[in-house]
Amino acid sequence: MLEQRTAAPTPIVRPPANGDAALPARPVGGRVQVLPNRLPAARPRLARLVKRALWSLLALVLAGAIAYGLRPSPVAVETAAVTRGTFLVTVDEDGRTRVKDRYLISAPLAGRVGRPTLRAGDVVEQGEVVVHMVPVAPPLLDPRARVEAEARVEAARAAVSQAATAIERARAAQTYARRDAERQRSLFAGGATAPQMVEQAELAERMRSEELASAEFGRRVAESELRLARAALMRLGSGSVEVLPVRAPVRGRVLRVLQESEGVVQPGTPLLEIGDPDALEIVVDVLTTDAVGVREGAPVRIERWGGGDILRGHVHRVEPSAFTRLSALGVEEQRVNVVIDLDAMPDAAESLGDGYRVEVAITVLQRANRLLVPLGGVHRLDEGWAAFVVDGGRARLREVAIGSRNGGEAEVMDGLREGERVVLYPTDKVEDGARVRER
Known about the structure:
The protein is of the alpha+beta class. It has helices at residues 38-70, 143-190, 195-231, 288-291; strands spanning 26-28, 31-33, 75-81, 83-99, 102-106, 111-113, 123-124, 129-134, 244-247, 252-257, 263-265, 270-275, 280-287, 299-303, 311-318, 323-326, 332-342, 357-374, 379-381, 384-391, 394-405, 409-414, 421-424, 436-438. It is 28% helix and 35% strand.
């Protein structure tokens, strides 16, 4: 009888779930045992950890980049330092130079002036003739006026002849009266006549002498009328012409020639201006509100006069009377003239002349060792003042107290320290704590 044996089942080897490679099976007691490979199974786990770390790092980098890109960028600002120095308040205006002592030469009488030979800049001495004046030419005569003038001449000649005849008649009467008086005196001496007859004869002699003198005066009047009638027919070149020389009152230079051509002028017509251009002063008109703070002797800087150096001067006088002037916008302004003397005239400024434009800065307030901030670094905050101070790359709003101000700086009384930097002309992007960067 055949013995039937049952074959042992063949073990099924499956790969491990974790993907580790299976080891060769070995029989143990009729069974096959599969031993896992421990070293190769650790490698996939490490790869997964590295991959997770890389993805996490990438996510962090992306998140940081997004956060960096979304954060506000620093505001670009201009800054200036708070400094210590001398604080000046000045009145800045345009002025003009002028000669201190000028002399206007005018026509003393009505007449015709010749063409002047002097020009602006010529030197004249005291008493030198600067212009000649001659009488005005008589008017032209029309035919009727000429006939009338000739008739007056004939009448004047007849009057002269009549006066001569009267003189002869008076002379003959005087001769007769003189002889009669002599006869009466001879008869009175012989006792042949009365004294009254002698007196009558002497009286007649004196009367005839007076009549002769009167006739001679009449002839002179007639001759004068004849000359007057003849003068009406004369022209300017028909005889000698009177010339009146006009002389310079002082030594100096000709500033302007006001009458450049020959012509007829009336009394008081300006002809020339004479002065010394080396003796200059500056006149500037300022607002009366600014002139209140200007004192005599105040220092003055003269700039933009055409040279590179700054000229120095001082206030000589503030005129007491103001005047009204229209501004460029058509607004009426009350202004007053301030006269400035130059302290010294450098060689470069010798070319300055009368009426030149300059810019002056008159000092009305000067304080030494003061804390100063640019005027663009402070702004109004409610009823006071404030400034943005740059601290660690951020703008910090700080209240400050300021004193006097000028055109570019303000005097700091409290709130700022020397060396701190403030933001100039801050925009609406600059806030307290905002990140800023200097340009």
